[in-house]
Design a protein that fits this description.
Length: 264
């Protein structure tokens, strides 16, 4: 029931005409109810002119104001969607670019919600193994195809509410708000396994690819920069331990400072 009401509210807010109609009807119900109450308690007789000026005339202004508000809100929503689909996306992989990705993660309620709210989630850095060697032996276009394929695998491995972006070069970022350790491990292993089991036709040859993943789990206040620094540490461990693997770390409780987060 709650989800249904939320969907209806979003539908009304996104449509200026529906917003104006709903607001006007709400005002009419409220004002006529007040008029009826006053009439019954104070013994007032119905006055058509009073009803017209007190109820109907304000309804016209309310409808116009709500229509303008809804139209502006819809325009802003359209602009945001256009930005995310064009300017805000990496042209090669169709993932969010690093600027929009970092902004969305840093402003996410999981990180900046009230102190009473629950903070829990995971942050992954996915690094394509030996991409520079692939570019050198098979060419830049082959490397671009590999990045595009890895980006598609990552996007297909996460939920609709998760955030995926290309951090630059051969690295992708994945933010999993609300994810438990089991959720994060399942997503990271699904990405790694799918990439390693695929065979990419690059330079006319079927070549295997692998990814190294640094996964961070957090349950306290932390900002985007802290997530990246911590994930880079675990990613370095994954590469030092043989590549094509996932390394995990839990960010220890502490203040959200610019200092390096402690891991265990």
């Amino acid at each position: 029931m709650r989800n249904w009401l939320k969907a209806v509210a979003n539908r009304i807010w996104g449509n200026p005409i529906l917003l104006a109609v709903a607001g006007t009807l709400a005002w009419l119900v409220f004002s006529t109810g007040c008029y009826a109450l006053l009439s019954s308690t104070a013994g007032m007789e119905a006055d058509v002119k009073w009803l017209a000026f007190a109820v109907l005339l304000p309804s016209v202004f309310i409808a116009a104001a709500l229509y303008a508000t809804g139209k502006q809100a819809r325009s802003l929503a359209d602009l945001r969607r256009d930005y995310e689909n064009t300017i805000g996306r990496d042209s090669l992989t169709s993932c969010l670019n690093s600027t929009l990705f970092s902004a969305l993660v840093d402003a996410h309620p999981t990180l900046v919600g009230s102190r009473a709210g629950r903070r829990q989630g995971s942050f992954l850095i996915v690094d394509v193994d030996q991409l520079s060697e692939l570019n050198r032996t098979a060419g830049q276009r082959a490397g671009d195809r590999a990045l595009r394929a890895v980006g598609e695998i990552i996007r297909s491995s996460v939920r609709s509410d998760d955030i995926v972006g290309r951090l630059g070069g051969d690295r992708f970022g994945v933010f999993l708000p609300g994810a438990t350790r089991e959720n994060a491990e399942a997503v990271a292993e699904r990405i790694r396994t799918t990439v390693s089991e695929a065979r990419f036709r690059l330079g006319g040859i079927a070549r295997p690819l692998g990814v190294s993943i640094g996964a961070i789990l957090f349950e306290q206040e932390i900002d985007y920069d802290g997530l990246v620094r911590a994930a880079e540490q675990t990613l370095r461990h994954a590469k030092e331990n043989g590549r094509n693997r996932v390394e995990y770390a839990q960010v220890k409780p502490g203040p959200m400072a610019s200092s390096r987060p402690a891991l265990h």
